[in-house]
Amino acid sequence: xxxxxxxxxxxxxxxxxxxxxxxxxxxxxxxxxxxxxxxxxxxxxxxxxxxxxxxxxxxxxxxxxxxxxxxxxxxxxxxxxxxxxxxxxxxxxxxxxxxxxxxxxxxxxxxxxxxxxxxxxxxxxxxxxxxxxxxxxxxxxxxxxxxxxxxxxxxxxxxxxxxxxxxxxxxxxxxxxxxxxxxxxxxxxxxxxxxxxxxxxxxxxxxxxxxxxxxxxxxxxxxxxxxxxxxxxxxxxxxxxxxxxxxxxxxxxxxxxxxxxxxxxxxxxxxxxxxxxxxxxxxxxxxxxxxxxxxxxxxxxxxxxxxxxxxxxxxxxxxxxxxxxxxxxxxxxxxxxxxxxxxxxxxxxxxxxxxxxxxxxxxxxxxxxxxxxxxxxxxxxxxxxxxxxxxxxxxxxxxxxxxxxxxxxxxxxxxxxxxxxxxxxxxxxxxxxxxxxxxxxxxxxxxxxxxxxxxxxxxxxxxxxxxxxxxxxxxxxxxxxxxxxxxxxxxxxxxxxxxxxxxxxxxxxxxxxxx
Length: 515
Prior knowledge:
CATH superfamily of the largest domain: Histidine kinase-like ATPase, C-terminal domain
Low-confidence stretches: 380-385
Structural class: alpha/beta
Mean pLDDT: 85
Number of strands: 19
Number of helices: 15
Helix content: 40-55%
Largest sheet: 7 strands, mixed
CATH topology of the largest domain: Heat Shock Protein 90
Shape: elongated
CATH class of the largest domain: Alpha Beta
Distance between the termini: 68 Å
CATH architecture of the largest domain: 2-Layer Sandwich
């Protein structure tokens, strides 16, 4: 027992109390004992105090041990109670155990006291561990349910979001910036982005979506996200980016890193209702055996630290201990799902990193995220400019999609860029379209992966037999574990996750045609 036991001792004889205390000391039971001798004091201590163990005499002038056991069981059911008395025999000891006492020790045999205390505390530890494992099991079941729920709705929901985002983008291209309706369209677009982000949170947290890591410079990703982060926080909050001068390269998924930063920025905003300062910094640190305790779960060696710090309200210790739990939130009903920080930690761990937090009430909160450094060269291409002209073409394309609205959107997007587009509603229809097509050859197929009758993978294999040069771009809104069974997440296979934007689709098509 590393920490002293907090013991409440009910005993009316000071000599007996001193004898029992000395027996505990001889048995190397470290303890802090509070002694009481009557019912009123005992009830007060049980209500207001916090004790690991209760020792009680069996018979007192105005009170008795069985009544003490009943009080403890009613108010502190997990606290063990050992009756220590010399006035009753074996039949009373059995009665005491039946009524909830943990053990019974005769004062004439106090050598049994230390083993009885040790056994009682071992049982407490075992029950605590059992509850912890039970809670972990329930949490695992909960996560499995979340994963199944997310996987079940992801496909249809991503198709719907793809249509909303796609037509919003097309409207934004046509509506002038000064037009009063433009704000409405932008709000629709932002709402669809939030919905897509929530779906992604559920999939990542349910471990139904895997990260797609690349070697990247965290400073570049941070700089690219600056405008978006500024839109997330209030005007009374100052955002400061402090990229390190020698940060180095990490291997992670840039999209998910953006998701982490947005979650942390929103939490920081909510913690600073009256304004404050949000600082996001990167630095290079070396973690060794001496410093690893400060960064639980981190890898030893050279790491890149991403720190997100605010000057907000801070957190109490009991809140800080639970912030990475799923569904734990301090926000009002309807203001938070309790998945944000849990998802962040899952993303970081999937990227090989670690995440920790420091916080003080009234002084603010700081999250420290560590990624192992890599010496591999960068393979993250610079993102296209927002106002960059979308690429055009004149080639013939086949679009195979079983969702009518999404099929129509993809056809319109590609036709607007100059392509000749043939629509099909499933793999069988796509094969028929290819066989009966008269005119310039089909050079690229954009196809949903999982469709009724004939899926995209089977259709593509048949097309490749007749048209070996044809290129295929697979799309899907299903979860990664479902898609992986079809082999389209393998290296060398071109794939777009739904929901995709018109810009993403047209750039990907042009890139494949030019390859």
